[in-house]
């Protein structure tokens, strides 16, 4: 079991109210993301769950039991931070094994656990190296393996991918969702990066100024934002918000335009409104001039779109698609290509020929 429930968390630092009545229910085995801008209270929420700060008000329940006054060590939670140092003189193997050694686990169990983690994180070939002989991304993987080698009640992760370059971050997003699925453990993951939140979470809680704005699946938060602030915060490029009002069967824009009034627009005539339009709901032109046959390899839901990986020969093509697209790995698919927009490069020199 690994449920985490917080109720009415309040915490002030002097005049700053970091948490103002935060209530969250994290189901067992969830990948639960707390998303919000800098200063929203995300880290303070995690620290409250871990028992690292005294709360002004509120309760923390772990697996249904009131743990509000439990010492951090008694909560059986693992916290993963942005910066986690490895032991420089130990090998990768010893680094990963150290949390289990500290708990005096039998050596057979330790080697099996290290092997499983190094397989999951693809670092098996690094086990005999020392941290100084690793790249930044490899170090981060080793640090994650060390955190994940234990089986605590839940993992609390505070922006663990922030220090990676974009390419590695994208890779690690996929790795983390895969690891989460394979461990079946509860993750509470804090980030200010909406792409991270939407692509990895089962459930997202959107936090602003210490208050929860909305909790829902990535699709719910994106498709049915609870308020204008959530609509503006989630989605890239940001949603356009056009001032307007209803007038009979029309919506009339402050800029002078009119549109047929949608049936669901139940607002009173004359009341000031904002019409929210997302980029993908507006289109200028759409056409395709050729297709490539391939095999569906994977889906990466990103909220406003799903990136579909399609294997064409030995290559993986990334294809931007509708968020509602579904498919099964192995399925035969066609990729439409707009050749007018394609590029050509010299394979020897790498220079563009188009
Ligand atoms: P970030 O994404 O920048 O890490 P966050 O959402 O995690 O932000 P918190 O670190 O939880 O935000 O901070 C919430 C608010 O509480 C901020 O205004 C912050 O300045 C304040 N705060 C947090 N910790 C302390 C502290 N120890 N002393 C004083 N103020 C604090």
Automatic annotation (TrEMBL):
Sorted UniProt keywords: ATP-binding, Cell membrane, Membrane, Nucleotide-binding, Translocase, Transport
UniProt keyword annotation of Cell membrane present: yes
Species name: Micromonospora antibiotica
PANTHER family, A to Z: MALTODEXTRIN IMPORT ATP-BINDING PROTEIN MSMX, TREHALOSE IMPORT ATP-BINDING PROTEIN SUGC
Signal peptide (residue range): none
Lineage, top ranks: Bacteria, Bacillati, Actinomycetota, Actinomycetes, Micromonosporales
InterPro entries to which the protein is assigned, alphabetical: AAA+_ATPase (IPR003593), ABC_transporter-like_ATP-bd (IPR003439), ABC_transporter-like_CS (IPR017871), ABC_transpr_MalK/UgpC-like (IPR047641), Mo/tungstate-bd_C_term_dom (IPR008995), NA-bd_OB-fold (IPR012340), P-loop_NTPase (IPR027417), Transp-assoc_OB_typ2 (IPR013611)
Molecular function GO terms recorded: ATP binding
Protein name: ABC transporter ATP-binding protein
């Amino acid at each position: 079991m690994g449920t985490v429930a917080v109720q009415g968390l309040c915490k002030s630092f002097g005049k700053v109210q970091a948490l103002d009545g935060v209530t969250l229910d994290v189901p067992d085995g969830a990948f639960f993301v707390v998303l919000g801008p800098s200063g929203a209270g995300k880290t303070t929420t995690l620290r409250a769950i871990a028992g690292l700060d005294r709360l002004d008000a509120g309760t923390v329940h772990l697996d249904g039991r009131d743990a509000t006054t439990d010492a951090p060590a008694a909560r059986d939670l693992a916290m993963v931070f942005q910066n986690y140092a490895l032991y420089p003189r130990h090998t990768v193997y010893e680094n990963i094994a150290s949390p289990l050694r500290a708990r005096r686990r039998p050596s057979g169990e330790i080697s099996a656990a290290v092997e499983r983690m190094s397989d999951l994180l693809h670092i098996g070939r690094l086990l005999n190296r020392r941290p100084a002989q690793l790249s930044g991304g490899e170090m981060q993987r080793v640090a994650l393996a060390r955190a994940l080698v234990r089986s605590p009640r839940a993992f609390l992760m505070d922006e663990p991918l922030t220090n990676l370059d974009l390419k590695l971050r994208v890779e690690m997003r996929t790795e983390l969702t895969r690891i989460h699925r394979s461990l079946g453990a509860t993750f509470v993951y804090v980030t200010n990066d909406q792409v991270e939140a939407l692509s990895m979470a089962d459930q997202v809680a959107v936090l602003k100024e210490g208050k929860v704005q909305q909790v829902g699946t990535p699709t719910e938060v994106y498709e049915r934002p609870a308020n204008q602030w959530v609509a503006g915060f989630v989605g890239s490029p940001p949603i356009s918000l056009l001032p307007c009002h209803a007038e009979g069967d029309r919506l009339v824009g402050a800029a002078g335009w009119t549109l047929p009034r949608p049936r669901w627009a139940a607002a009173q005539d004359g009341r000031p409104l904002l019409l929210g339009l997302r980029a993908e709901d507006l289109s200028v032109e759409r056409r395709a001039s050729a297709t490539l046959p391939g095999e569906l390899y994977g889906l990466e839901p990103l909220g406003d779109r799903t990136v579909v990986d399609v294997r064409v020969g030995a290559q993986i093509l990334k294809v931007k698609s509708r968020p509602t697209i579904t498919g099964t790995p192995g399925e035969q698919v066609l990729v439409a290509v707009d050749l007018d927009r394609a590029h050509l490069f010299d394979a020897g020199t790498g220079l563009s020929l188009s």
